[in-house]
Design brief:
Elements (H helix, E strand, L loop, with lengths): L9 E3 L9 E4 L2 E4 L9 H17 L4 E5 L5 H13 L3 E4 L1 H13 L4 E11 L5 E10 L2 E8 L2 E2 L11 H12 L8 H4 L4 H13 L5 E2 L2 H11 L11 H11 L12 E3 L2 E3 L1 H12 L4 H27 L3 E5 L6 H13 L3 E3 L9 H15 L3
Parallel strand pairs: 1-4, 4-5, 6-13, 8-12, 13-14
Antiparallel strand pairs: 1-2, 2-3, 6-7, 7-8, 9-10, 11-12
Helix pairs in contact: 1-2, 3-12, 4-6, 4-7, 4-9, 7-8, 8-10, 10-11
Length: 367
Amino acid sequence: MRLPQPFPSLLALGSEGKGSFAWNKGEKVFISNDFGDLREPENYFRYKKGIENLMEKEDFKAILVDLHPLYLSTRLGEELSQRFSVPLIKIQHHQAHIARGMMEKGWRECIGVALDGTGYGEDRKIWGSEVFMVKKGIFERKYHLRYIPLPGGDKVVEEIWRIGVSLLLETYGEEAFNHFPHFWKHLPEEKAQMVVEMWRRNFHTPLSSGMGRLFDGFASLMGLKFCTFHPAEAPLLLEKLATSFQSVKITPWEVRIVGEELDWRIWVKGLEEDILSGKDRKFLSYKFHLTLINAMEILVDRVIEESNLKKVVLSGGVFLNALLRERLKENFSQKGFEVIVPEPPHDYSIPLGQIYVYYLKRTSSIE
């Protein structure tokens, strides 16, 4: 990879789930191997050793880390910043995802759609479905998914039924127990009551706009999965079912935008209606995808009307979903937009994006 022009040397430490780091010499940018999940001690040791060896050889002007304060990569950056007396710069996760795509062609402006599972946001909430307008080094967050409460925090990653409970409570309030009876009957009663109380009291219930969490929640409401053991297990199952659906002309659920939020509650109601009318899981999975594709197009079209930008970056781990990725690429291309999906779109590429975010912000300020 290359920057559009020579730039002072930077070291970017990336994310946590897929440990990687990147650095530049002039305009040339290099990236390490994928060290895997840094929460595994052996992976973290090899990752840290590689970075320390590099810092002994190179003279970096800044260390770039993720905005998330608890990522091991961020903490390592803070430690190295003090040890080597190098300035530390924090970069928002989804801005880095979009910038990674922009870097491929040296773009300075675009519309960025970041669909992901988790990323620490500038408002201290968990982000993961963002539409940005990028101009003059500024990543303006124009739209995002309505925040989903996550009762139990990280527990929802494995016990995805918790998200289903949250979606129903947010949609129907105290009437939630009268809806989706097939869902409630599969839940551990005592635990489910505890989750409802957490939601009511807003106790240990962080907010997330993560698209990955919406996939998890809808998979649980469809009765596909209530618990998972591998990352993206439920989204992969939804994609598989949607792809196997023998496509007929169907109308997606309504897209409702309230202020800057994409409101998913109307989709929960649409899902219930389709289940009650006897639609099978392949149909439901396909309609869920079709609705998301339609929603992203509507949001991007809105930003285009405001900005007149015709360049679009699609990035984040959710774009490993071929149905979403290819359909959106095709639809935007047919409208005459230039579309980039970085390879890969997941967190391995984050350090490259961190470097390009910093490059854009610094060079835009001196234009």
